[in-house]
Amino acid sequence: MGDKKDKTKNKSQKKLVAVSELTTCESTQAMLSKARQDGVDTAFDRAQAMKACPIGAKSACCKHCFMGPCRLNANDPYGKVGVCGATIDTIQSRNFARMVATGTAAHTDHGMEMLKLFRGVVEGRILDYQIQDTEKLFEVADELGIATEGREVLDIADDLCDVLETTYTQLEGEIPFVKRAPAKTQEMWRGEGIVPRGAMREVMELMDRTHMGMDQDHQNLIKQISRTALADGWGGSMVATEIGDILFGTPKPLQAEVNMGVLKEDQVNIIIHGHEPNLFDSMIASVQDPELIAKAEAAGAQGINLVGMCCSGLEMLSRNGIPHAGNFMSTEAVLVTGAVDAMAVDVQCIKQGLAKVAECYGTKLFTTNRRARIEGVVHVEFEDEVPRACTDTVVEMAIKRFAGRSAVVSIPPRKDVGVHGFSHEYINYMLGGTFRGSYTPLNDNIINGRIKGVAGVVGCTNPRVKQDWVHVELVKELIKNNVLVVQTGCSQVAMAKAGLLRPEAASLAGEGLREVCETVGMPPVLGLGACVDNSRILTACTHMVKTGGLGESIADLPVAGAAPEFMSEKAIAIGQYFVASGVYTVFGVTFPIVENTKFHKLMFEELADRGMGKWGFTKDPYEMAAMMIEHIDGRRRALGLDKSRERVLVDMADRRAMEG
Ligand code: NFS
Ligand code: SF4
Predict the structure, then answer these.
(1) pTM here?
(2) Which residue, among 133, 165, 137, has the nearest Cα to 151 in the 3D structure?
(3) Which of 269, 337, 379, 489 could form a disulfide bond with 531, CB atoms 3.0-4.6 angstroms apart?
């Protein structure tokens, strides 16, 4: 027995992959090595020990009823069917549908919470937050047909709440932001019958249709899948972004620091990790409270250092320049520094594994949201009406932990400065200049070929691939080929650490893109914020179409999207709303559909024939870049833009001729 145990131990130790193979983030590497020395487990090592189930990875199994669960053979997908007779196409489309339903539910639930906060502010019940961007409020209200002339801000806001609420609750009709999309894109959606009614309605119907014995035609189910995903992109996520801007301010470019070096050994370090900006905003107020600062100083600290991680970290990085310690795959590693006195989490992408790591290094970990608690972790409930009750408590506990710090503190020194906080509004302003704020210069530079096209590179990091590596190699390849890159989520943090969000990174771009970046003084890679801010990319695409010269629908644009290291169901929902909006979207890591099946063909080819985008998949960043560039070139050819690059300033008549 003893022998056997030892052998197992040796075997699992042998399995440990060099940290340099697991991540290109040097801070995370250092902390992973330290964790291993300290005998602490992280998701990186657990991923090595947990072999991904190949049947599940391909979505070839079904557990939608208890005549099963049923497993089909991904290598012979039509060789058998489930007990009920379900084919591979039924099984994998239903599984895909549920991922989209979950991802959409996550973003729309987040959006609903934002709306609840907004309403509380408007009705005067919530006093700790205010409308900070009235200009944005007016713009959005105008766009949605709410009268603004001569009316009080709060009256307009009140109407806006009612209109935006329909995004979620409406039983019939179209969600409000559908009308933001280009007319031809809307027409395509209506033709397909996939304009969302309300997100709650769509998620419910999608769940219903994936029950055993319901929709068993993947060609029919894809419609509800797309409709639900659109309720996320043009619904839940878009509302979350717009309310975020109205309440916390529309981001404008600013310099900020990213990486673990933002932690300070001689200060009380507090990390906020999650997705909803209200917790973070309240924490900003708490750490500025003179009484709490005095308490920190009395405990021997030089001050209180507030740092973000993941998506709410990105929201506050973009809006307030709050430093950011790292993306999803660094959240356990950062605790290994021993320097984190408290980490408060709210919702989404919070690994349960944090609890153990926090315990090992004496970090006080707090859950704060009633929707996301972790067994054994102290819960300090956050309430919009009295937000400081939660965040002040967290600060006090952090100070206590600082005073009694016993863990060895070892902070990787690196921090990377970059420019963050772009928005579709700012792209307007930046490229257009103050006098002609418009997308015309962007379109012109695409038409004249200096910029080949635009790529959105977004999404998670995943321990099944080398952290940050696929993101960074892909983006380098894209900008080298004159593709302007826009970023959100954990990908943006990877870029910041690689120095690609600095204007100087223009030197890595192709000649045309470099010229544009140097003229404007912008980086070749623009950070737009959190994952819900992918909606900013939809809005930017819409502006490009409406500005003219690049076709009539989003599907005509020379653009492409990618989530090269995705891990979440939210990412699947995002991918599907981009595809349904007309964007060719390539994912890495793995793809949950069996190749050489009808559903695969539908998703990877046929959707494009209906005026949508389509999916692509590869793990290799260089191949991914090539696929995206090939698509962009194809769109340029279709628009007649493949001629000479010196065709500067094309006039409207020329453009019409090209389109015709
Ligand atoms: Ni997006 Fe943000 Fe990161 Fe992925 Fe998670 S933090 S919502 S899901 S892992 S990008
Ligand atoms: Fe098997 Fe059909 Fe039940 Fe799925 S729904 S578990 S395929 S019997």
Answers:
(1) 0.94
(2) 137
(3) 489
